[in-house]
# Entry
Amino acid sequence: MPILFHETSQTFHLYNEHVSYIFKVLKNGHLGQLYYGKHIRDRENFDHLLEMQARSMAVCRFEGDLSFSLEHLKQEYPAYGSGDMRHPAMDIIQENGSRIIDFTYRSFELKKGKPKLPQLPATYVEDESEAMTLFVTLYDDVMETELVLSYTIYEAMPVICRNARFIHHGHFPISLESAMSMNLDLPDKDYEMIELTGAWSRERSVKERKLEHGIQSIYSMRGNSSNNFNPFIALKRADATEFSGEVLGFSFVYSGNFLAQVEVDTYDVTRVSMGIHPHCLSWKLNQGESFQTPEAVMVYSDQGLNKMSQVYHELYRNRLARGKYRDQVRPILVNNWEGTYFDFDEEKILSMAKTAKELGIELFVLDDGWFGKRNDDTTGLGDWYPNLNKLPHGIKGLSEKVKALGLQFGLWIEPEMVSHDSDLYRQHPEWTLATPKRPSSHGRNQYILDFSNDEVVDYIYAMLHKVISESFISYIKWDMNRCMSEVYSTVKSAEDQGKVMHQYILGVYRLYEQLTTEFPDILFESCSSGGARFDPGMLYYAPQCWASDDSDAIERLKIQYGTSIVYPISSIGAHVSAVPNHQVYRSTPIETRANVAYFGTFGYELDLNQLDQETLDKIVEQVAFMKEYREIIQFGTFYRLKSPFETKVTAWMVVSKDQNTALVGYYKPLQEVNTAYERLPLCGLAPDKEYHVSINEIDCYGDELMNVGLITSDTPPQSIDEIHDGSHGDYTSRIYIIKAK
Ligand code: DGJ
# Structure
C-alpha cells in the first residue's frame, strides 16, 4: 500500500520507491507538512520534523504554549490570519464579513485508483492498481463547510496529483475568493525557479531565477493559460543539472487563469502554491453547493530536469491524453494556412491535396477561411457553415474529393469566437462577453462568445456537429485567437460574475468532451494563436497542440526545447514552412526545417505547388523518413542534450523503448570557422549494445557513445560548393541515426 496512516501520531505517509510525501494532523486540527522528497523508510512518528520552538513575538494558538504558531509551522492547506500571515491557499468571505477560516481534521478515506474530477480534465488510471488516492476531510464548524483535500500517488512514477473540494453545508452562503489546488511548504529556499515564459510566436522560453525572500510568481489573468507564462514551474537545487540533482515540478491541469506562486518567508521557508488565479474568481456557495479545484501535478526527480520531463512526458502521453490517437503515430499533414491564408478556392485546395498525396503526405488540413463570409479576419466567426463562393460543394463535397484522392481531410474551427460581422452576432449580440455600458475591446477583430452560458455552447455544438457529421473529417484544429477582456455574462446575476471566467473554461471543456465523445475517430489538435493554450488541460481532449505561429526552424529550436520541459514530443505540433519564413524572413535549408519539425507531430505548412522539383524530391524523402521513425520519435524516450538558451548549438535525442534505435538531432544556427573539437555524450543507450552511427559511419558500444560521446566536430569546409549541399553554412543540422547491430 503506498499510503499509510499512523493512528498514534496522526501521520500520513504517501510513498512509492521514488518519493515520500508526509504530513500530519496538528494539535489544532490543521494539517502540517513534514516532508516531500526522495523516498525514505517509514516510521510511526515523524514529529521531530515539526521543529516547534518558542519564538519571540510569534502569534501563538494556545494559551500558555509559546511553541505552537502557524507562523512557523509548515502546512498543507493554510488559511490566513490566525498566526500565518503569508499568502493562504484559500480565502473565504463569510456572512458576517469575516475571512478567518479554521478547517480542522475530521476523517480520511483511501481509494484504489484515481476517481475522475467532475467537469474537469485530469490524469487518470486504466487499472486501479496504478495509483492510490487519499481523501482527507476537514471541517469548519462556524461556516459549516467541508474541505476535502485529495492526493493521488502513482505506484510506478514519482507523481503526486492534488486537488481540493469545498462542500458548503451551512445555512448562510459563503463566498470563495481563492481556492488553490495545492500548497506545499518546504523547509528551505535553496532553489532556483524555472518557468516557461514568452509571448505570441516566442512561447515557452526557459527562464531560471534564484529564490529570494518575498514572492516570485507567474500567472495568467487573460482567460487562457497564455503564451506569456505556461502553467508550470519547477524548483531546482542550484547544483542540479539536466541529468543530476533534485528538481520538483508543479504543473497545472487547466486552460484558464492561473497562479503559480513561490513565497519565501524570512525564515527561509518556501511556500509553493498553484491554482486558479484568485483575481477574477469570486464563487458564492449556497447550502448544498460545492466547488472543485482543478488538478495540480507534482513530479519529483533526483536525476535532474531531464528526468522530471520524462516523467511528465510519460504521464501526460499515457494517462492524461485520451482517445484513439493517444497511442497512435500521428498522420503527416499539410496545412494550407501559410500557403494560402484566406485566398483559396476548391480548385486550389484540391490541387494542393493532389500534390500532397503524390509526396506521401497523409492528411490535408483546411485552415481558417472556409466558413461564413470569411475572406479576411474581420468577418464570419460564429457562422460555421461553408462559404459556397469559395467551396461550391461545401465541406462535404470537398472532403469527399480529398478522400477520393486517398488523403484524410482535416478542418480548422474557432468555436469560442464571434465576429461582429456575422449572422450569429446579428442574431445574438447578447451572447458575447461584454460589460454593459462599456466599450468592448477586440483582439484580431474578434469577440468572445459567452461559453459560461450553456445555451451558447449547445448552439455552437449543433452547428459544428452538422458540418462534421455530414463530411469526411479525420482531424480538427481547434483555435482560440485572443485573450479575454471586459468579461461579463448577460445571463448571470451581479454576484455570479466572479464565476464567469472559470465557467467559460468549463464550457470549453464540455464542448470538447461532447465533440471528442461524439467523434472518437477524429484527431483533435488544440491551438491558440499558436501556443497560447499549450497546457495539460487541453491535452486531455486533444493529444497534440500547435506549438507556435513562429514556424522558422531556428526559432523553433527554442520553442520546442522549452515545450519539451513538460510536454511529450507526440503533443508538439511542428511543421515545415516556406522560405523566406513568414515570421522572421529567414531562409533555412529544407533539411533543417524538417530536422526540427521531425521532433513533433510533423507536417508541412506551405503551398506545395510553389516548390521546385528538387525540393519536392526532398520532401518525398522526408515523408518516408518520418514514416519510418515517427513511432520512435513520438513514443520513445526524449533527452535534451544541448540547450539553445545556453550554447551555440542545440541537440536532443530520442531512444526507442527497446534501446535498439536512437535519433540525435544536432542543429548549428551559425557557421563558425576553425572551430574546436566537439564530443556530445549521448543518453539512454544500452551500454553493452554495439551500435552503428550514421554520418560518422562508425560502430561503437553504447557505453562509449554515452561516456566518450558522439563526435560532432565540424570538418572545415573545403569549398564554397559545400554551402549548397547543406553540410556547411548557417542554419545547418544533422540527424544521426544510431542502430543496434
Ligand atoms: C492562429 C493559428 O495559430 C494559425 O496556425 C492559424 O490557424 C490562424 N490562427 C488562422 O486564423
